[in-house]
Design a protein that fits this description.
By secondary structure, this protein is of the alpha+beta class. It has 2 domains: about 20-80, SH3 type barrels, CATH 2.30.30; about 95-315, Zn-dependent exopeptidases (Aminopeptidase, 3-Layer(aba) Sandwich). About 20% of the residues lie in helices and about 20% in strands. It has 6 helices and 17 strands. The strands form 4 sheets. The protein has a 7-stranded antiparallel sheet. The protein has a 6-stranded mixed sheet with strand order 11-8-12-17-14-16, sandwiched between helices. A two-stranded antiparallel ribbon has the order 9-10. The two termini are about 25 Å apart. It binds zinc ion (ZN). Zinc ion binds near residues 123 and 336.
Length: about 350
């Protein structure tokens, strides 16, 4: 829903009573101020950017910017959406999909390129395209043939109530940096039903008998676990019709990756208060899987699988499958290049 729309009318001028939520910068941009120096804005944020709203004081909204820094923004320069009420329907049988509030997170972005395929395909770009296809499916009604998995336009499954992208349309073609705390605070701020972080993998253990898809869930969240199992089922169903010299990890499946203290290793999962998953669809580091990821057909298949899994998560009690027991992880993480610099994208001068 709240994607960039420069032609949209100016936002309401009435100050909201809610103190948490998310916002979209209105046409023309919005000035961001540091919490403790109110005289000069540090950036005029680009129209269409989204920010999590963590609090409110008068006509100011307290936000977290893309670089994980707190900031203040004037209410009349943004379109504010309050958090989903705690009393709204929970995922499960009998819930309509038009209640769903989903955050779609394309992994990496900007100088954080993620994994790179042997032919040079960048994970950050593939993840973004799959995320956009997923968002597009979520934002309009469909009919699913659950026997074949086919998704038809229009029909009984309504559009999701709200879909938020952590890298929204707007500046730099959405090829922008976004911190892990920013991404999870957006999901928490809007009180999303689910935060789905889309990635592709590298460094497999070796050849694998079929797609080596992995979905990580939060160690303490049964809803995150259920969603991971549903996504794994739908990815396996979808990807098994493609040919590749598949590779994988010995423990491919739906699983946790925890530290020796029992906490989730990955920040997206550890920092999020709402059910969150990290999806590692296939191995971009493997030439034949990279070649698949370079096709529209395969990217759409990835998005179709995520869409069906989210519909099942929100509207059924299906438990999911493919869960794998894991030991605490003591290796080193290869999660893409560390971010060196971060800048909030600025509105161009007229
Ligand atoms: Zn990644």
């Amino acid at each position: 829903m709240p994607e960039a729309d420069p032609a949209a009318p100016p936002p309401d001028t009435e100050v909201p009573t809610a103190t948490r939520g998310a916002l979209v910068v209105a046409a023309g941009g919005a000035d961001l101020y540091r919490q403790d120096e109110d005289d000069e804005p540090y950036v005029r944020a680009h129209e269409g950017l989204t920010f999590p709203v963590t609090g409110r004081s008068g006509e100011w909204l307290e936000v977290l910017d893309q670089c994980d820094d707190p900031a203040l923004v004037r209410f009349d320069e943004v379109a504010f959406t309050p958090a989903r009420p705690a009393t709204s329907p929970a995922p499960g049988a009998g819930t309509s999909f038009d209640e769903a509030v989903i955050v779609v997170d394309p992994g990496h972005g900007g100088p954080n390129i993620g994994a790179v395929g042997p032919a040079g395909l960048l994970e950050k770009e593939v993840n973004l395209d799959i995320a956009r296809r997923t968002r597009d499916l979520l934002e309009s009604p469909h009919t699913v043939d659950w026997e074949t998995g086919e998704i038809l336009t229009g029909g009984e499954i309504p559009a999701a109530g709200q879909v938020w992208m952590t890298r929204p349309e707007g500046p730099a073609g959405a090829d922008i940096e976004a911190g892990l705390t920013f991404r999870t605070t957006l999901a928490d701020g809007i009180n999303a039903h689910a935060l789905v972080s889309i990635h592709n993998n590298a460094a497999p253990d070796g050849p694998y008998d079929g797609p080596g898809s992995e979905v990580y869930h939060q160690v303490t969240s049964t809803e995150s676990q259920r969603l991971s199992g549903l996504i794994l089922e739908e990815l396996r169903r979808e990807f098994s019709r493609f040919e590749a010299d598949w590779v994988g990890d010995d423990d491919a499946g739906a699983k946790v990756r925890i530290r020796e203290d029992g906490a989730d290793i990955y920040g997206i999962l550890r920092l999020s208060d709402v059910p969150a998953v990290i999806v590692e669809g296939v191995f971009i580091s493997n030439a034949t899987e990279e070649a698949l990821l370079d096709t529209i057909e395969f990217r759409q298949a990835y998005a179709d699988a995520l869409y069906r899994a989210l519909v099942r998560f929100m509207t059924t009690d299906d438990p999911g499958s493919g869960f794998i027991e894991t030991d605490p992880f003591t290796g080193s993480l290869s999660s893409g290049a560390p971010v060196q610099t971060c800048m909030v994208p600025a509105q161009p001068e007229d």
